[in-house]
Write a structure and sequence with these properties.
The complex is a heterodimer of chains A (497) and B (414). Chain A is α+β, with helices and mostly antiparallel strands and 497 residues long. Chain A is 32% helix and 24% strand. Chain A is built from 13 helices and 22 strands. Chain A has helices at residues 14-25, 61-77, 98-110, 119-125, 146-159, 208-214, 278-288, 350-364, 401-407, 416-423, 435-446, 451-469, 475-491; strands at residues 4-10, 30-33, 49-50, 82-83, 87-92, 115-116, 133-139, 142-144, 163-165, 168-176, 179-187, 192-202, 221-231, 239-242, 251-255, 258-262, 266-267, 300-311, 326-330, 339-344, 392-394, 399-400. In chain A, helix 1 crosses helix 8 (350-364) and helix 2 packs across helix 3. Chain A is globular, with a radius of gyration of 23 Å. The two termini of chain A are 39 Å apart. With 414 residues, chain B is α/β, with parallel strands linked by helices. Chain B starts with a strand and ends with a helix. In chain B, helix 1 (12-23) runs parallel beside helix 11. The chains are: A alpha+beta (497), B alpha/beta (414). Chains A and B meet through helix 11, helix 12 and helix 13 of A and helix 5 and helix 10 of B.
């Protein structure tokens, strides 16, 4: 493999993969390094809302404008990754009515279309929501799949000549005379390697600070934890938002056969502080009751948390006070050439962040190439909406053998988690009770896996699904867990295999 | 009408009580919200596969392990029943199984080892006689998978069995030539194989590979006409056949559950399913219980005694709430598991919430938190009881059978 690149990007989330795509479409030789699989950090651990911008119009009008223009653009070029559900902002009787005017004015000046919908009409359309509706407005929110988006970026970049490597961790920077000259990395087998490059872009999300410190640079990221809960059905057909200043537990996003509900905002200890606790889940659900009464009685299938990498240059402000805008840190200003970190921002505007970053890089490299990422289609490598539905192995999410085949093309190593992120395998109501065994049995034969490897695939995935179930271990999910124990421990005796 | 015995729950525990009542000619009714998880079970009746539950090696001399358990774990349901009565419950079931037309084999003295769908080995105690096949003695073992069945992968099963048995095991795919544009489960295929024409297609493919072998095949060999299907296959193929219990729906569990249900009905037991018991009256004794009929009216049942056999968390006899676990019909106090769960799903120490249950005395009567009997004429059996992890120790059906047996003896004593 080639070991010299113009630019190396660290981080396989929406931002990093977006930057890789932008670089490659401008003709630069580039490589992306990701320590896990694509979109396993913040980009895969959020509510999956493609913001219309309406959430930010009052406090952060600049972000709101960016959101709406990207929202429109992505719906056109990245329709594989998006379900254009539309969204609703609902002011309940409990919410401050004076906020509505400010919000409407904000939407108008940001260019976000709103359309009032009468409470009676809305209740007819969305019967699960509260009857205590004061005002409600339709906005162009949508659901976006962070996993699909990251892999679509990678596919587009690869077509333009880029390389992306997962399960590869950066362990050091090669620095000569105040300039970055390359990186030291370690792959999943523990093999170390050295690569040369002219430029490094750090898009590590919550890990940005750790990565920068490998180059002796200091970036203060305040990791901020957001807890989310998944329900086993679509509570509403559209995204539900609460028409009030952004707070906890006021976003519901329909995805596939489930609903993702969130979120909270609390300082996290570490970038990988991704476990939700039972108490956090109960708090969150209490908040959601205002918008969806009876939420407590509905079936939760798992809870998880994501870490927002919030960055405040002055070091002040955290949680919801911190800006959702992004910042480019040119480390040349602190004595290291050829190194940029990109921090903050949000998934909806990933493409703009990539553009700004690459604009700076090409300027530094004296290359005169404009951004074309807004013109190129962003197709999923795995267009599940367009595949046949014959022979589904995962009946909840209609994942077929054909999809499982495509998902491992060219992969020498994979976990069922990787397959899940690409296909939605095991993301539905049964949370893998049936399809984990099926996918394992299928891959064992098809990919000629050693039986020991197959057993590990099976057990690791059951364990992974269990992790998200523990904070919601009551009601139907407790029952589902007993079914899972009955099958995998009782029937298959897997604990002693 | 006054029943001698009102049983709530139609799983193995409830059926086991009903068998005792029928034997003694007692007027019995079974009320159940649905048919029990017995329909999804393997059809084996495990007494105790592992002891202690953390042990990786199966328990072979069963009574020794059982006696140790009774010594060491006074709150385990088996300790409440006692070795002698457990043996009675099992031998009584063995003789009734012959009468019911689904003869079971095995004994309480030793466990036998069976292959699972993943290719691991699992100990069990009683098994349908058609499964009286020894994987250790077989000269040649062949695993066959059926293409139309999505829950069985013969290569994977054979792969693990090769490791477990330290011998070469061949596998084959066969099909039954049905294309209905939907996935088929084991029940569908078992029904199809009752048709001779479909069965012949299968036999044709199996013939060249199975002669003289022990043929392992997912349990799909007939729902009702299993005897005919299995013996036809063994004769035609000149081999021995062993069915492997499948993911739910489980045909072997179905055969056992249906056979019990029909036998009890034929003996005059009233079985009313589809309605949950949502009302009861009584202070020191349960006076009556009721179900709500489709027209909204209560239908009441009075009994001299009552048996609660509604199952655990899986069977919905117990319901888990964020801060507590409740017994669903009489609101009996339930043991609080602490901590509720452990980080490792496969931890051999078990998941505490899974072994929760109501507090009972040695007569299986429910107790309040001070240790006083709540209702004198109510007896609890099966997974509604706590103190054991059926999935880890492999004791689920054994506990159901023996506590159901004892609950009925206690209930009918007065």
């Amino acid at each position: 493999m080639n070991n010299k690149f113009q630019v190396i990007v660290i981080g396989g989330g929406a931002t990093g993969t977006g930057i890789l795509r932008d670089l490659s479409l401008r003709g630069l030789s580039c490589l992306l390094l990701e320590q896990n699989d694509f979109a396993t950090g913040t980009s895969g651990r959020f509510h999956g809302l493609l913001h219309s911008g309406a959430r930010y119009v009052v406090k952060d009008p600049h972000s709101a404008k960016e959101c709406i223009s990207e929202n429109k653009l992505l719906k056109e070029i990245a329709s594989d990754c998006i379900e254009d559900t539309g969204g609703i902002f609902i002011a309940t009787g409990k919410d401050d009515p004076s906020y509505i005017d400010k919000w409407l004015k904000g939407c108008t000046s940001a260019g976000i279309d709103t359309k009032e919908i009468s409470p009676s009409e809305l209740i007819k359309e969305e019967p699960y929501i509260t009857k205590d509706i004061f005002k409600a407005y339709l906005v162009p929110d949508a659901a976006v799949d962070g996993f699909t988006l990251a892999s679509a970026n990678v596919l587009s970049a690869k077509k333009a000549g880029a390389i992306a490597r997962t399960y590869t961790k950066v362990v050091g920077f090669k620095i000569e005379k105040g300039s970055v000259k390359g990186l030291f990395l370690r792959d999943h087998r523990g093999k170390e390697e050295e690569l040369r490059c002219d430029f490094v872009i750090n898009a590590g999300g919550p890990w940005t600070g750790e990565i920068a410190s490998l180059a002796g640079q200091i970036i203060n990221i305040s990791p901020d934890k957001g807890v989310l809960v998944i329900f086993n059905h679509r509570i509403a057909g559209k995204v539900l938002n609460r028409l009030r200043p952004p707070g906890d537990g006021d976003i519901f996003v329909p995805h596939g056969s489930v609903t993702v509900f969130g979120t909270t905002s609390k300082p996290a200890e570490r970038p990988d502080d991704i476990e939700a606790t039972k108490e956090e889940v109960l708090d969150l659900i209490n908040q959601g009751e205002d918008l969806v009464p009876g939420l407590k009685e509905m079936r939760f299938i798992r809870a998880f948390a994501g870490v927002r990498p919030l960055y405040e240059p002055g070091g002040k402000g955290s949680g919801r006070e911190a800006t959702r805008e992004f910042t480019l840190i040119n480390h040349e200003e602190t004595g290291l050439k050829g190194f940029i970190s990109v921090v903050g921002g949000k998934l909806t505007t990933f493409r703009l962040m990539a553009k700004a970053t690459v604009d700076l890089v090409v300027k530094k490299l004296s290359i005169d190439k404009p951004c074309i990422t807004h013109k190129e289609p962003l197709s999923a490598p795995f267009p599940w909406k367009r595949l046949s539905v014959e022979e589904p192995l995962c009946q909840c999410e209609r994942v077929t053998k054909e999809m499982l085949d495509k998902a491992v093309e060219g992969k020498e190593r994979f976990s069922l988690g990787d397959i899940r992120r690409l296909t939605r395998l095991a993301m539905g109501p049964c949370q893998g009770t049936f399809c984990t065994f099926r996918a394992t049995g299928y891959y064992h034969e098809k990919k000629k896996l050693q039986v020991i490897e197959a057993n590990k695939l099976l057990k690791d995935h059951i364990q992974e699904r269990w992790k998200g179930t523990r904070p919601v271990l009551w009601g139907w999910q407790a029952q589902e867990t007993e079914l899972m124990r009955g099958i995998y421990l009782g029937l298959l005796n897997l604990d002693r295999l | 009408m006054l029943y001698d015995l009102v049983i709530i729950g139609a799983g193995l525990a409830g059926f086991s009580s009903a068998l005792v009542a029928v034997e003694r000619g007692k007027k019995t009714v079974i009320l159940a919200r649905g048919l029990g998880n017995l329909y999804s079970s393997s059809g084996y009746i495990d007494l105790l596969g592992y002891y202690p539950a953390t042990e990786r090696k199966p328990l072979l001399s069963l009574l020794e392990g059982l006696n140790r358990l009774i010594d060491e774990k006074p709150a385990h349901p088996y300790s409440l029943v006692g070795t002698d009565m457990i043996k009675d419950a099992f031998s009584s079931f063995l003789s009734i199984s012959e009468v019911m037309g689904l003869p079971y084999g095995g004994s309480t003295y030793k466990n036998v080892i069976m292959p699972t769908a993943v290719g691991s080995l699992v100990p069990t105690t009683l098994f349908p006689k058609t499964a009286e096949r020894d994987v250790f003695e077989a000269e040649k073992i062949v695993v066959a998978g059926i293409r139309e069945l999505i829950d069985f992968f013969p290569a994977y099963t054979a792969g693990n069995l090769e490791i477990a048995l330290e011998r070469k095991i061949d596998f084959y795919w066969v099909n039954i030539g049905i294309n209905v544009h939907r996935e088929l489960n084991s029940y569908d295929i078992a029904l199809a194989l009752e048709e001779k024409e479909i069965r012949d297609r299968l036999l044709k493919q199996l013939k060249p590979i199975s002669k003289g072998s022990l043929l392992l095949i997912p349990a799909v060999l007939g729902v009702k006409r299993w005897k005919e299907v299995i013996s036809h296959m063994e004769e035609e193929l000149e081999c021995k056949v062993l069915e492997i219990p499948t993911f739910p729906p489980s045909v072997m569990g179905y055969r056992l559950a249906e056979t019990l249900l029909n036998y009890l009905k034929s003996k005059g037991v009233e079985i009313i399913t589809g309605y949950s018991v949502d009302y009861f009256k009584g202070d020191k004794d349960v006076e009556e219980v009721a179900i709500t009929m489709s027209n909204g009216r209560l239908k009441k049942f009075k009994g001299k005694s009552y048996i609660l056999a509604t199952g655990g968390i899986l069977g919905e006899g117990l319901q888990v709430y964020p801060q507590e676990i409740k017994e669903t019909i009489f609101s009996l106090p339930v043991i609080s598991p602490e901590p509720p769960s452990r980080e490792d799903f496969f931890n051999l120490e078990g998941q505490p919430f899974s072994s929760t249950g109501v507090f009972v005395n040695n007569s299986l009567q429910p107790l309040d938190r001070t240790g006083k009997v709540i209702f004198n004429n109510l007896f609890v059996s099966g997974a509604t009881l706590g103190g054991y992890d059926p999935f880890l120790e492999k004791s689920g059906n054994g506990v159901a059978l023996s506590t159901g047996y004892k609950a009925a003896l206690m209930a009918l004593k007065g």
